Amino acid sequence: PRPIYLSRHGESEYNVAHRIGGDSPLSPQGRRFAQNLGRYVEGEVGEGEIRIWTSTLRRTIETARPLGRGTVEWRALDEIDAGDCDGMTYDEIRAAMPKEFEARSGDKFDYRYPRGESYRDVIRRLEPVIVELERERSPVLIIAHQAILRALYAYLMDKPPRDCPHLSVPLHTLVKLTPQTYGVMEERFELGP
Ligand code: F6P
User: Fold this and answer.
1) Which end of the chain has the lower number of beta carbons within 10 A, N or C?
2) In 3D, which of 84, 39, 82, 79 has the Cα closest to residue 169?
3) Does the CB atom of residue 9 touch ligand 1 within 6 A?
4) Ligand 1 atom closest to 108 (CA)
């Protein structure tokens, strides 16, 4: 049974500054993770086939680069759109828009950022990705973002969608999901620098 690999992009400049969204490049640590991921996938796959899907944001594209293989860029894999809050820190949101901050804490699944998205919106736009993922016969490595991978992980592991905003999908950790006769085997590899 072919595995599905999930990874967040390497640490970005915005991750370092605690800013959400944006389209910043990788930090030096993030670039090191990308190298480690490249070596790891080389060891796992060797001459074999693997599809590599990224978002259209530079932090995922830069993370895929050391793999030295073809990639497919999906807009549907771009991070949750934080709308008017894009580029802010959580502290800045709490100070400038306390009502919004509170509303999101109260219902993170259905909360929609002003002129942005909710987790529920994200799950809806991931549908074509999931259709293609089910159709694909080769292993697939998806390099994407925290909210996106929470949603995909919940789907693949059969977790209730409502739980997905709270699932742990840390940076610099490759998640390998291998379908079994009953359920899915999960392995996590910390490839951090
Ligand atoms: O902080 C990194 C990040 O990918 C942001 O770009 C995004 O808004 C956030 O994580 C999503 O996580 P949460 O839903 O917990 O805010």
Assistant:
1) N
2) 79
3) no
4) 14
